[in-house]
Design a protein that fits this description.
The protein is mostly helical. It is 82% helix and 0% strand. InterPro entries: Protohaem_IX_farnesylTrfase, UbiA_prenyltransferase, UbiA_prenylTrfase_CS, UbiA_sf.
């Protein structure tokens, strides 16, 4: 292989790695969940939206979520450097500068809201702006380092996407979209507290007052059960409100019962394995709940 080929191959690898760093800055796993729940909000909303506008709305939701993630990584770079789970993120790993990350986050935030307002509607744009602002200012800058309720209150930011998707189609906020919001809002605490039960030392070292660090593991397990119990009837509500079918009704009961069983197992066994299992299942649970809603909507639309 010639020297020129070697140089070109090395340069290509460097560019690829750089692109992956920027992509990681946007928290793609979180973004994928946000886009999916936003899509479901659009699918179950009454009315029609032109496919181009629908794609634009989802793009704006994705960009807004990524922008929030970039700003979060900028602000939490000191914490991320200490925590085992986050120490390899682009900023603490020295792959992207903090100032550059902030600039990307702010630019994408403004662009996503403006595009949503101009191309889709102002209600969806306002909700997107609230989502970004809530995640950045309320959760990241205010709650995360100050209170063990950071996940409870701050979790609202992750619950907005289906409301945004609904508003993109209807131009308003309704009880139905608020229920979709409530499902994610109630799901968030047991999801993250299950994680923190076996990552509590990591959070303690970083000075983040997650519930197990402040109140102890026993109190956290009790709260996991309480929120899992509250989640169960809320997740079934789309069926009783008439915008989900019998398949969703049955599915939400079964999935919710498994979730509750997992939470009770965490409380009863008090071991790391149960917490890890509930954390893993909680991700699957939320995906399946919204996937059933989406599937029913598609099936209804076709037949």
């Amino acid at each position: 292989m010639s020297d020129t080929s070697i140089i070109n191959e090395t340069a290509a690898r460097a560019v690829s790695a750089r692109a992956s760093d920027y992509f990681a800055l946007l928290k793609p796993r979180v973004m994928s969940l946000v886009v999916f729940t936003g899509l479901v909000g659009m699918a179950v909303a009454p009315g029609d939206l032109h496919p181009v506008l629908g794609f634009t709305a989802l793009l704006c939701i994705a960009i807004g979520a990524g922008a929030s993630g970039a700003i979060n990584m900028w602000y939490d770079a000191d914490i991320d450097e200490v925590m085992e789970r986050t120490k390899n993120r682009p900023i603490p790993a020295g792959k992207i500068g903090a100032g550059e990350a902030l600039g990307i986050g702010v630019s994408l935030s403004v662009a996503s809201v403006l595009l949503m307002g101009l191309a889709v509607n102002y209600v969806a744009a306002a909700l997107l702006a609230i989502t970004i602002g809530f995640y950045v200012f309320i959760y990241t800058m205010w709650l995360k380092r100050r209170t063990p309720q950071n996940i409870v209150i701050g979790g609202a930011s992750g619950a907005f996407p289906p409301m945004i998707g609904w508003a993109a189609v209807t131009g308003d906020v309704s009880v139905e979209s608020l229920v979709l919001f409530a499902i994610i809002f109630m799901w968030t605490p047991p999801h993250f507290w299950a994680l923190s039960l076996w990552r509590d030392i990591d959070y303690a070292n970083a000075g983040v007052p997650m519930l197990p660090v402040v109140a102890g593991r026993e109190a956290t397990r009790r709260q996991v059960v309480i929120y899992s119990v509250l989640l169960f009837p809320i997740a079934v509500m789309p069926y009783f409100l008439g915008y989900a079918g019998i398949f969703y009704g049955i599915g939400s009961v079964i999935l919710g019962a498994i979730f509750l069983f997992g939470a009770l197992k965490v409380w009863r066994k008090k071991d790391e394995k149960s917490a890890k299992q509930l954390f893993a299942y909680s991700i699957l649970y939320l995906f399946l709940i919204f996937a059933i809603l989406l599937g029913e909507s598609i099936f209804t639309g076709v037949f």
